[in-house]
Design brief:
Elements: H1 2-13, E1 28-34, H2 38-49, E2 56-62, H3 69-73, E3 81-85, H4 93-103, E4 108-111, E5 116-118, H5 123-129, E6 137-139, E7 142-144, H6 150-171, E8 183-186, H7 187-192, H8 208-214, E9 220-222, E10 230-232, H9 238-252, H10 257-283, H11 287-312, H12 321-338
Parallel strand pairs: 1-2, 1-4, 2-3, 6-9, 7-10
Antiparallel strand pairs: 4-8, 5-10, 6-8
Amino acid sequence: MGFWLIVFRKLAQYSISLNKKKANQEPISVIIAGKNEAENILRYLPLVLKQDYPTFEIIFVDDHSTDDSLSVLNKFVDEKLKIYSNLNENKGKKSAIKFGISQAKHELLVFIDADCWPNSEAWLKHISMAFQDKTEIVLGHGAFSKKPGFFNKLIRYENLMVAIQYFSLALIGKPYMGVGRNLAYRKTLFENSSGFENYKALRSGDDDLFVNENANSENVSIAILPESHTQSEPVLNFKSYFFQKRRHLEAGTKYKVQDRYRLALIGLSQLFFYAMFIYLIIFSEQKILVITLFVFRFLAQLFVMRGIVKKLGEKDLLPYFPLLESIYIFLIFLIGASTWVWKIDRWK
């Protein structure tokens, strides 16, 4: 109840007035790292190229692709697009992104994945407007596109909960992560920090671990309007989702201690609430009281969630909220436990 009514409610109540924002039209370098993304490049790169923004470049770094990625890239004729091959012996997404940053000629760096696309032609405009005063990092929302079926709703709900947590904690001055499919920061911040050096052995971390290491209560802003969102195709089966979520959870074990504590507290409070509800429904003689407390907590969550799903474009998930939450909690516990059992190694 505390997290929902105090912390997450910040996001539900968050509003932004573009009229109060100073127009920021600093030149931007968009960094995209890809491996074997020929089909996605053909489909989504044009949507990045057609952004309505005065000055920007797109740096696409191909990381040892074995498909037709490079030949597809070379078919684009646009002076804004710079194409590089990451020939560094250190293969992997972090190495490709680091190389792309080194080639960027502008101070503002915006990141999107090769299999993602902007929600609007004003994407860069809205991201750049979030850079105000002391801002060095801008957190954006990377949504999954809507598909038929319950599984799609489940992974979109999980993605929604991640967004709720990192946006809300950023709003109370406790930023801890961002997503690389919609993230921006200053080049000088990367150059003046250790970059990805402290977690270069991990398969992921170019986004959330970099934010975790360099974000503070003053240098982070969020871009929340629908025009600032990006979209990506969701995974279509549980196996793909399982490995995707494993990678994210493994990176989370490297967060700062206080951030791991907060996230554990959120997760455990959810887990124990449902566990105690089941236990008390079976064994307690005060079943009416137990049900009343459950309904009261659910209505409080629903009140907060209504304001959030409108902002993040997930209103269709609201009717499924209780079911999705209970399954989500079980899956996160299951996948988290698996990270302690065996290790895997994948580029994405």
